[in-house]
Design goal:
About 40% of the residues are buried. The protein has a single domain, classed as Up-down Bundle (Rhopdopsin 7-helix transmembrane proteins). The protein is mainly α and about 250 residues long. It contains 9 helices and no strands. About 70% of the residues lie in helices and about 0% in strands. The chain is globular and about 60 Å long. The longest helix is centred in the N-terminal third of the chain and has 26 residues.
Length: about 250
């Protein structure tokens, strides 16, 4: 009887493997959608889910093979810096005029490149390494100040954008429920990894692994619900030419 909780805890440690597989499959789906309908928001979403998978892959490899410096730096860049930002940028292309979204994209890429360069350059405090993926091992602790701004950007556009879209569709007289429910699922799915990150900082990394997988599944489910709706979802200001049949899909 006593072995069951221990076994369950050990299995939870391997959840990032499942998250990586799911992220890889979702990336393929998004990539195919982008190839069929090459719109910028789909490209950013494809990159975002791919990087989500890179982040969970580093967690999986750390569980299997143990901590090493390369995995840590990759995890911090893909997870702490880029966990939700590319997805948020994709949503920005749905909510804003294209020119405005382009400017945000340039600013985001520039900011991330600067932050990532410092993550790569910071020395590692060997005495702080305890086998877990934690930013405390960086000697330049000020490097961690880059991530709150990026995470705030992700919350505003990914979570806030999904909530705003759900409310907007709910208020329509025809109430396209697939879009209301799909955006609601995306909003909840985007919030869960952040909640898990809070538990991880408190020392309970298992909650993060559960929330990452559940959040990814909910985002995919939301995407599938919206993708079945064939109505146009692109900001009218971005439609500088008539949309083709394939482009009216989300």
């Amino acid at each position: 009887m006593g072995a069951s909780p221990v076994l369950a805890a050990q299995l939870v440690d391997y959840l990032p493997v499942a998250s990586t597989v799911v992220a890889a499959a979702f990336t393929v789906v998004l990539w195919r959608h982008w190839k069929e309908s090459p719109r910028r928001y789909l490209l950013w979403w494809t990159v975002g889910i791919a990087l989500y998978g890179v982040g969970t892959a580093t967690e999986a490899l750390t569980t299997i093979f143990g901590w090493n410096e390369g995995l840590f730096r990759s995890w911090y860049i893909a997870g702490a810096l880029l966990g939700g930002a590319p997805l948020a940028q994709g949503t920005a292309y749905l909510l804003l005029k294209r020119r405005t979204a382009d400017r945000f994209a340039v600013a985001l890429v520039t900011y991330v490149l600067i932050a990532a360069s410092f993550v790569i350059a910071t020395p590692i405090a060997a005495d702080a390494v305890d086998g877990s993926l934690d930013g405390d091992v960086m000697e330049w602790q000020w490097v961690r100040l880059f991530s709150p701004l990026i995470n705030t950007y992700a919350v505003i556009f990914l979570v806030g954008g999904a909530i705003w879209s759900a409310v907007r569709y709910w208020r329509r007289h025809d109430r396209p429920m697939s879009r209301v429910q799909g955006n609601a699922l995306i909003a909840v799915g985007a919030i869960l990894p952040g909640i898990g990150g809070g538990f991880a900082r408190a020392g309970t990394v298992e909650v993060l692994y559960v929330m990452e997988l559940l959040g990814l599944i909910l985002i995919w489910a939301g995407y599938r619900m919206i993708a079945r709706d064939a109505t146009v979802s692109v900001h009218p200001a971005q439609a500088d030419r008539p949309l083709t049949t394939s482009e009216v899909r989300t």
